[in-house]
Amino acid sequence: MEILGLDFFQVTILAVLQGATEFLPISSSGHLILPSVIFAWKDQGLTFDIAVHVGTLFAVLVYFKGDLQRLVFALTLSVFQRKHSQDSKLAWMLLAATIPAGLSGLLFAMQIEQYGRSLILIGITSIVFGLLLFVSDRSGGKQLTLTDMNWKTALLIGFSQVLSLIPGTSRSGVTITAALFCNLDRAAATRFSFLLAIPIIAASGLLRAIQLLETDTESVEWLVLLYAIFISAVVAYLCIHYFLQLIERIGFLPFVIYRVLLGIVLILLAL
Fold first, then answer.
1. Residues 4-27: pLDDT tens digits?
2. DSSP alpha helices (H): ranges in 81-221?
3. Residue 254's pLDDT band (cuts 50, 70, 90)
4. Residue 2 falls within a domain, yes or no?
5. Which residues contact 23 (CB under 8 A, 6 or more apart)?
6. 1 within a domain of the structure (yes/no)
C-alpha cells in the first residue's frame, strides 16, 4: 500500500514524527526532513502534509475542548452582550496574537517553501533557538499565570510566532521562549502556546488544502490518509498530555540539549 511513493512503514514514521514534533519545542521541520536525507525517501507531498496536520489539529481540539468551549462562550458574550470576563480577555488576546504570523505566512509562503529544506539553516536555527529557550527558562521570576497576562505580553508572543516561519525554529519553541521571557510560568507559557497553535494549524491546513484543490491530479489512497491522520492525532494528543504533566518537573533543558544535538547532526549531514 503506497501513497505518493511512500509505503506503510514510511507513512507510519512520518505521521509519528509530525504528531510528536508539532507541539514539542524541537522543530517539526528539522525532523521531517531527516528521513528523506538519511534514507532517501521521496517527499511525502502536499496531500500527506494536510492529512497529518488535520491529525494534530484534531488532537489539540480534543485535548483543550473544555478550554475552547469556555473561551468561545465568553467571546460570544463579549461580542453580543458586552459582558467581559477573564476568559473573554484571553480569547481576544489569542486572536490578536494570531494575526502577525497569519499575515506573514500568507505574504512569505513562497520564500518559506524555497528555503524550507536547507539543512544548514534548519541546523543553525535549531541550535540558536534552542539556546534561547534555555536562557529564557533560566531568567526572570516565572511567576505569572494566564490570568496575569496583559495585551503587551500576548502581542509580544504573537509577534515572536512570526519567527517560527523560519525553518528549524519550532513554533511551540519560539512562543514558549517569548512567554518565559515575559515571566509567565512554565505551565502558563506552554498552555498559551498550545492554544495559540489552533488557529495557525487550522489556517495552514486550509491554505494547503486550497493549493491541493488547485494542483492535485493524483488518485488518493483515502485509507492510508485516514491512518496517517489517526496516528498523528494519537501521538500529538499523548505529547500534549505528558508534556503538560512533566514540564514543571523536568523543565526545558532536555529539549535544549536535544535541539543542539539535532542541529549539529543536520549541519554535519549538510557538509
1. 567 788 889 989 998 998 889 988
2. 86-107, 109-115, 119-138, 151-160, 171-181, 186-215
3. very high
4. no
5. 56, 60, 172, 194, 197, 236, 239, 240, 243
6. no
